[in-house]
């Protein structure tokens, strides 16, 4: 019984974690796409050795939306050729593409079995596979099937929709942007882009409409004040940035302090607040401290809790230091 | 945010990175790979500690042990693809913020925060 990890095992643990994280994000960054030899070997193993079935036809899709549309098209072909929510031309194009790629038996089996899609693994399995991969690396797990499954998952297939005779495999995104906490996040563009152009916008992990990011220059004070969806309002706040929100709403200086740093430099910090209060933030004003970067001379606005009345205390609250400790030997 | 008494020692501020010297390595600190302290959102810049160092983490705190000398540098991240640059005590081409030399000792680093009233949390500043 292993009671405690050795330093070497801890090192392997972090190494394993980082390798799995990097496997996916390097794939995205370098737009590698699915490792087809690994995926096809894995699917063949799942169907022939585990399920005792014939190897299926594989259809690669450039995005999740494209994949679901393809499956829906096959489904709707059976029901009503006009009863689809996408344009006929799009559907026809997708259908033609799929029909060119799959044989009659696949076409009809998928149509008949579109509700019988199974699940055998995709990018969402990275977490637990990485977990047991660590135990495999330190000799605790010794399982040939796990090694084969691991190899299959390492193909970086974003999503898999397996049917009786056919498997739809979704290519991973070609662009992902995240915040410091690792959540999907971009204030300047789509946070997730697939290779067919399909894109998704996120702020701090929350899905938002594209216009908040793509048309942020058209956001007015009235739009901001009248927006009732707190998620969208929070997204506007993030996308416009501190300066943008302050410009939009207006603010006044409520305190100015001078900080005497340990290296002899003097720093002036201002506390600003909006004149209005806002119901979605507990009927408080927005508040910022304004500081100047000593290297670039750029003014920065940093959001602070609205309860502050002292500019230096407000600035110190954003750091590991107390107000009295907030004095630097080096500032660049 | 945890406030610890700092009566003496070095305190420094480079862009959105701040830090201070510590008298010892905090208990429970785990050695980790040296990675950028902060990544810029727009320009591919990064704050890194280069030199003769060991990086540790404990309770989300980032601690460095500078064995002889190190430099807190603000550079273009692509420079760090050259692994030798992680160990250099020479100044690399500066992005925006001038380097800060750190002598032997323990140092804690953190990223300056800002308050998000919608999420009611402090978030790390990204420049």
Give the topology:
The complex is a heterodimer of chains A (332) and B (127).
Chain A: H1 7-29, H2 36-50, E1 57-61, H3 64-78, H4 88-101, H5 104-112, H6 126-137, H7 144-153, E2 159-162, E3 166-170, E4 175-176, E5 192-193, E6 199-200, E7 202-203, E8 206-207, H8 210-214, H9 221-226, H10 230-249, E9 252-260, E10 266-273, E11 287-292, E12 299-303, H11 311-316, E13 330-331
Parallel strand pairs in A: 1-3
Antiparallel strand pairs in A: 2-3, 4-5, 5-6, 7-8, 9-10, 10-11, 11-12
Helix pairs in contact in A: 1-6, 2-7, 3-4, 3-5
Chain B: E1 11-14, E2 17-22, E3 30-32, E4 38-39, E5 45-58, E6 61-76, E7 100-111, E8 113-116, E9 121-124
Antiparallel strand pairs in B: 1-2, 2-7, 3-5, 4-5, 5-6, 6-7, 8-9
The biggest chain-chain interface is: A-B, 42 and 40 residues
Structural class of chain B: mainly beta
The biggest sheet of chain A, with number of strands, parallel, antiparallel or mixed sense and barrel status, is: 4 strands, antiparallel
Q: What structural class do helix, strand and pairing data of chain A support?
A: alpha+beta
Helix tally of chain A? 11
Q: Main sheet of chain B, how many strands, which sense, barrel?
A: 7 strands, antiparallel
- Strand percentage of chain A lies at 15-25%
Neighbour order of strands in the largest sheet of chain A: 9-10-11-12
* Spatial gap, N to C terminus of chain A: 52 Å
Number of helices of chain B: 0
What gyration radius of chain A follows from the Cα positions, in whole Å?
27 Å
Number of domains of chain B: 1
What level of helicity do the residues of chain B show? under 10%
Care to count the β-strands of chain B? 9
Describe, in plain words, how this protein is organized in 3D.
The complex is a heterodimer of chains A (332) and B (127). Chain A has a four-stranded antiparallel beta sheet. In chain A, strands 1-3-2 form a three-stranded mixed beta sheet, covered by helices on one side. In chain A, strands 4-5-6 form a three-stranded antiparallel beta sheet. The model of chain A is unreliable at 79-90 (pLDDT under 50). The two termini of chain A are 52 Å apart. In chain A, 41% of the residues lie in helices and 16% in strands. Chain A is an alpha+beta fold. Chain A has helices at residues 7-29, 36-50, 64-78, 88-101, 104-112, 126-137, 144-153, 210-214, 221-226, 230-249, 311-316, and strands spanning 57-61, 159-162, 166-170, 175-176, 192-193, 199-200, 202-203, 206-207, 252-260, 266-273, 287-292, 299-303, 330-331. Chain A has eleven helices and 13 strands. Chain B has one domain. In chain B, the strands form two sheets. In chain B, strands 1, 2, 3, 4, 5, 6 and 7 form a seven-stranded antiparallel beta sheet that branches. Chain B has a two-stranded antiparallel sheet with strand order 8-9. Helix content of chain B is 0%, strand content 51%. Chain B has no helices and nine strands. In chain B, a hairpin with a 2-residue loop joins strand 1 (11-14) and strand 2 (17-22). Chain B is mainly β and 127 residues long. The chains are: A alpha+beta (332), B mainly beta (127). Chain A binds chain B through residues 7, 10-11, 14, 18, 179-180, 188, 204, 230, 233-234, 237-238, 242, 262, 280-281, 284, 286-287, 293, 295-296, 302-306, 317-322, 325, 327-332, and chain B through 1-4, 6, 10-15, 18, 20, 30-33, 42, 74, 96-100, 108, 110-119, 122-126. Strand 13 (330-331) of chain A pairs parallel with strand 1 (11-14) of chain B.
